[in-house]
């Protein structure tokens, strides 16, 4: 599949650190778009990166969109933006971020963290281990983004 020109620009976008994302002010726009997470260290030795986009020593291992597609039933659309979604990935917990959930599970032994249900709720996360995961991400993860007004339309091309 040929990568659309706009997505080719996304693959060439600068990689931003946690401090750039969290600001203040945050460099990430409050707009819709696509984003990708790049890593200089693999969270698991069994991950094969041949076929992944790379920039220098960084490999693109995760891509996402914000907001998600509007509901087909005419309900309210998500008000999420690139800024809010990327911040959630950098500072949230595994219950609200598939990226953090996946990384935490892959790094559980190395970071001595465990996915658990905390309190009386049904949501699972890494508890105090979320801080360790955030530190690992600050050191080994970078993010790039591209403003796209309707990111759900290019989502399949992005993932390909």
Q: What topology does this entry show?
A:
Blueprint: H1 5-11, H2 18-22, E1 33-39, E2 54-55, E3 58-66, H3 82-91, H4 98-111, E4 116-117, E5 124-125, H5 129-140, E6 141-147, H6 151-159
Antiparallel strand pairs: 1-3, 1-6, 2-3, 4-5
Helix pairs in contact: 4-5
From the structure above, extract its key features.
160 residues; alpha+beta; four-stranded antiparallel β-sheet; two-stranded antiparallel sheet; 6 helices; 6 strands; 18% strand
Task: Give a quick precis of the structure.
By secondary structure, this protein is α+β, with helices and mostly antiparallel strands.
Would you give an account of this structure?
With 160 residues, the chain is α+β, with helices and mostly antiparallel strands. Helices cover 36% and strands 18% of the residues. The strands form 2 sheets. It has a 4-stranded antiparallel β-sheet with strand order 2-3-1-6. Strands 4-5 form a two-stranded antiparallel ribbon. Strand 2 (54-55) and strand 3 form a beta hairpin. The protein is globular and about 40 Å long. The chain starts with a helix and ends with a helix.
């Amino acid at each position: 599949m040929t990568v659309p020109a706009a997505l080719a620009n996304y693959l060439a976008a600068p990689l931003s650190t946690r401090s750039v994302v969290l600001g203040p002010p945050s460099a990430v726009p409050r707009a819709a778009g696509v984003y990708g997470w790049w890593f200089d260290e693999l969270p698991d030795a069994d991950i094969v990166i041949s076929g992944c986009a790379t920039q220098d020593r960084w490999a693109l291992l995760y891509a996402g969109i914000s907001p998600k597609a509007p509901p087909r039933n005419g309900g309210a659309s998500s008000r999420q933006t690139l800024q809010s979604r990327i911040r959630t990935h950098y500072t949230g917990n595994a219950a609200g971020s598939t990226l953090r959930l996946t990384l935490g599970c892959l790094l559980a032994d190395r970071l001595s963290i465990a996915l658990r249900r905390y309190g009386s709720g049904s949501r699972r996360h890494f508890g105090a281990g979320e801080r360790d995961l955030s530190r690992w991400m600050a050191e080994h993860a970078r993010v790039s983004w591209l403003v796209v007004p309707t990111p759900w339309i290019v989502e399949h091309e992005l993932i390909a």
